[in-house]
Amino acid sequence: MPEFAPSRRQALRLAALAAPVLAARPGRAAGFPDRPIRLIIPWAAGGSTDAQMRTMCEIAARHLGQPIVIENRPGARGTFAASILHTQARPDGYTIGQIHQGVLSHPFMTRSATWDSLNDFTYILAITGYLSGIVVREDSPVRDWPGLMAHMRANPGQVSVGTSGVGGASHLVISQLFEKEKVTYLHVPYRGVAETTTALLSGQVDAVADSSGWAPHVEAGRMRLLAVWANERPKRFPDVPSIREFGHDVGGIAPYGLAGPKGMDPEVTARLHDAFKAALYDPQHLAVLERYDMPVLYMTGEEYRAWNAARLPVERDLIRRLGISFEGG
Predict the structure, then answer these.
(1) CA-CA distance, 160 to 158, in Å (whole number)?
(2) CA Rg, the chain, in Å?
(3) Same fold, 8-129+254-322 and 132-246
(4) Which residues contact 47 (CB under 8 A, 6 or more apart)?
(5) What is the pLDDT of residues 251-272, one digit of tens each?
(6) pLDDT of residue 74
(7) Phi and psi at residue 221, in whole multiples of 5°?
(8) Would you state the torsion angle of the CA atoms of residues 165, 318, 229, 70, taken in this order, to the nearest 10 degrees?
(9) Are 74 and 84 a contacting pair, CB within 8 Å?
(10) What is the pTM (predicted TM-score) of this model?
């Protein structure tokens, strides 16, 4: 799988755009917003996305002069926000939601017509991405990644691994990793990192592959982090290897961001972009990103749409190759 993180050239260019100043846009979006904005988070409350988004919305609301009301809608592989934006929301800027990699993969895993990921949304900006990895309970006999592989080979198809949903980033990554390692496993999908964390701690699954909502439990000694899929070892866990160290060029950090329904007024989109960009670089929000090992992956709406356009065929081919598509061909 190609790297998700921006190239060095792109990173340098984006850093030059990173001034946390709300750009003046005289005459734009006159009167917007004049009432609260609804933001849909397609994950359960209590996870890393929820914490990050709530902090960001609190700051963005000050710039917009209106509250931003969070609505958690977990389930459906984290695609309820996309579904609502596609089928229910008016393109007036008052309903927006989180867009992530699962939104790209979803149309390739269902017979039903869903959305065109490139043309059925108005992209506002990309924000950050998840540090993800695989964890076990501290009392597990598995001590490291090679130990997990040995345990899975000794118990083919019996080791249960929880993720935040079929076709999500972590599911696709571990499916590739286990395919390369020639091991089989029992996949147990949940509705978000809060649920996978509970499942692991309560003994419902043997391991969890998910974003860094597990980090506090690793620090507290309740979980053991075996490996991460990132470009390098995380600063907070310098003793934990990247999966690359085991010879796997898989994973990385995929950006996620905000979008609204198709057909939004460019001036309204720009107003939302400016407010959320200012919030992105606010020290209060940057502290939350650091807490969850989430990098700044800022892109404008157009840049984010272009990133998704390049990623879309990769998602399609990967899902079909792994056999989790309901489509033929």
Answers:
(1) 6
(2) 20
(3) yes
(4) 192, 193, 194, 211, 213
(5) 677 899 999 999 999 999 999 9
(6) 86
(7) 85, 15
(8) -40
(9) no
(10) 0.77
Considering only the top CATH level, what class is 132-246? alpha beta
**Residues with pLDDT less than 50, the chain:** 1-28, 327-329
In the DSSP assignment, the letter for residue 242 is B
The full set of domain ranges for the chain reads: 8-129+254-322, 132-246
* Alpha helices (H) along 17-75: 48-64
Residue given tokens 């596609």 in the structure block: 86
Largest CA distance in the chain: 67
If one counts every other C-beta atom within 10 angstroms of the C-beta of residue 149, the result is 18
Query: What is the tens place of the pLDDT at every residue in 25-83?
Result: 444 467 999 999 999 999 888 878 899 999 999 999 999 999 999 999 987 778 899 99
Tokens 């959320």, residue located: 276
8-129+254-322 classified as CATH 3.30.360.10: no
Shortest CA distance to 106 belongs to which of 73, 128, 84, 83?
A: 83
- pLDDT recorded at residue 113: 67
Closest CA to 139 of 240, 219, 237, 222: 222
Virtual CA dihedral for 12, 16, 21, 26, nearest 10 degrees?
A: -120
**Amino acid present at 158:** Q
